[in-house]
Amino acid sequence: MVGMMGAGKTAIGSAAARALGVPFLDSDAEIERASNATVGELFAEYGEPFFREKEAQVLARLLDGEPCILSTGGGAYLSEGNRAAITSRGAALWIKAAPQLLWARVRTKNTRPLLRTSDPKKTLYDLIAAREPIYALADLSVEAEAGMSVEHMAEKTVGVIATRPDLLEVE
């Protein structure tokens, strides 16, 4: 699962994995577990390039495992190497959400290191503008809508995954 921070990758991915009977993994959580630090702490102490390097290493390890739903960090899919690794082992599914919805979801959270700026809303909108053309390269996509439950989004996601029987056996 790829997409912007606040799109719902973790919540939707977890629910979709339960519905499909496969493991759910979150690359940010795996990075935090491996490093014994939060994503925010890693950004603050070592910078974004260091974090992206570790992220690529963790993604490669997770992609070598059993079939699963894997939620990636918002910037993971920007790397050509990560995109190639994801495509070679499965498919990227973009959780697409309108900028207003993303802002509503992230504006009160202090856990987003890239939004620790003097104008976080502008920063978010700039990130969306820069990233959406890359997210659009994903093999599959699902549109998130305001007011749509996680369960409904997971159902939509499972339906999209079912169009690719090569990914997982979906009944």
UniProtKB/TrEMBL annotation:
One Pfam match: SKI
Example of a GO MF term: shikimate kinase activity
Cellular component, GO annotation: cytosol
Gene: aroK
Keyword Cytoplasm (UniProt): yes
Taxon lineage: Bacteria, Pseudomonadati, Pseudomonadota, Alphaproteobacteria, Rhodobacterales
Residues binding Mg(2+): 10
Protein name: Shikimate kinase
NCBIfam families recorded: PRK13946.1
EC number: 2.7.1.71
Family designation: Belongs to the shikimate kinase family.
